Amino acid sequence: MAPATISARLAAHVAGTAWADLPSAAVAAARRMALDTLAVAWAGTSAPGIPQVRAEIVEEGGQPQASVWAAGAKVPARSAAFLNSAAAAALDFDGVRATERGSVHADSVVLPAALAVAERCGATGRELAAALVLGNDVVTRIGAASSLPHKGWYHTAIYGIMGAAAAAARLLKLDADQTMHAFGIAVNQACATQLPNIERSLVKRYSSAFAAQAGVLSAQLAARGITAAREAFEGRFGFYDLYQPGEPALLFDGLGAHYPHVETGIKRFPSCACNHTAIEAALRLAREGPVDTAGLAVEVTISPYVDRLVGAPFDPSTDPQVAAQFSVQYSVAAALMRGRFGVADIEPQAVLDPAVGRFARAIGVRVDPAWGNRRAATVALRASDGSRRERHVEHIPGSPESPLDDADLAAKALDCLQAGARPLAPAQARKLMERVARLDELADARELLAGLA
């Protein structure tokens, strides 16, 4: 007989799926996502808001169970999950799976939680890899099965906590009943709205961190025998009732055969994914020839969904980096004027460049209601002589429809690993990349960061 509740069915999948039953493509995708997430987190360890909280948590101390990436410190597993997830989200450079039903950054929650627990319990690389596959599967499935309209919760956090709980439960070797209770405990801790995205505040980069930490705690409490709601998703006052409605038929479609995290996109630009098609369109225009901003009128057309997250007037007065990451005006202005959009372009001094700011604020934002939740963008330029040119980009660079190649992924990882609070030398960065590539061969997951973190 099939398990009776949604939580129980998901739990049976997480606890009962054998390594041999995991498709090679799902494992390869988990390794690819792990490298990308670890790399962007490494670069994010020096981003505004991260050093301050790291100092607080390292000073607080506790059992040295898991590594704080690029810090040379160890803290309790929950604290490590929290800090490392925040670093992974800080530059908005982490992978994202975007569908018409919404976007979710699964691995920036799942990897920090899973690696922290794996270090604590001495799991093998194969056990860690399996936990990553199943944790990301839970997050992306819940995201793909969500119903419209969005209620304003930050999906990465409220779905990510379930994936973090799943990955931690798998590593702690919880049975299906205990894993089900971990999901129930997680529902009691789900949080994070899109308000920090809209207001461009630093706490946005901690939304995923709260989920990673809480997911680990959920599994730890379940391991200690704490019970929770069995109908965590579908019950009265459950997840679907209070947070975001979902469709169980979609949630379980292809369970165990298809792993939707395989379609996760790897970002080309360190910015909210809603900016990426506009950035790419602007870069194509810039590559065609120099952009003379004098007398130039610029208009970007986006969907209502994109407008909600990145369409507000550019205002870097409070938190410049976050403002840049969530502004289509700044994104287009920087891409047109500089002919690039990389980590250097979201550094505060670059964001506060007066010339870029003036140009950005003059860019018109047009919202096409017919576009709905599309991430497409059109950037149009009209010169002072009346000539006009435009470029339209339908798909986010790095998405399954427009993927990056292996050379792009390796170059991004190498670049990011040589940045942050404790940059790695090129040889060290390549060593870490090689370890990730053979993750499931490691006898102990702690070998992954040995001598590097």
UniProtKB/TrEMBL annotation:
Lineage, opening ranks: Bacteria, Pseudomonadati, Pseudomonadota, Betaproteobacteria, Burkholderiales
The name this protein goes by in its record: MmgE/PrpD family protein
Signal peptide boundaries: 1-20
Residue ranges occupied by any MmgE/PrpD N-terminal domain in the UniProt entry: 9-247
Keywords associated with the record: Signal
Occurrences of domain MmgE/PrpD C-terminal (ranges): 269-434
Domain of life: Bacteria
InterPro entries referenced in this protein's UniProt entry, alphabetically: MmgE/PrpD_sf (IPR036148), MmgE/PrpD_sf_1 (IPR042183), MmgE/PrpD_sf_2 (IPR042188), MmgE_PrpD (IPR005656), MmgE_PrpD_C (IPR045337), MmgE_PrpD_N (IPR045336)
Family: Belongs to the PrpD family.
Organism: Pigmentiphaga soli
A Pfam family hit: MmgE_PrpD_N
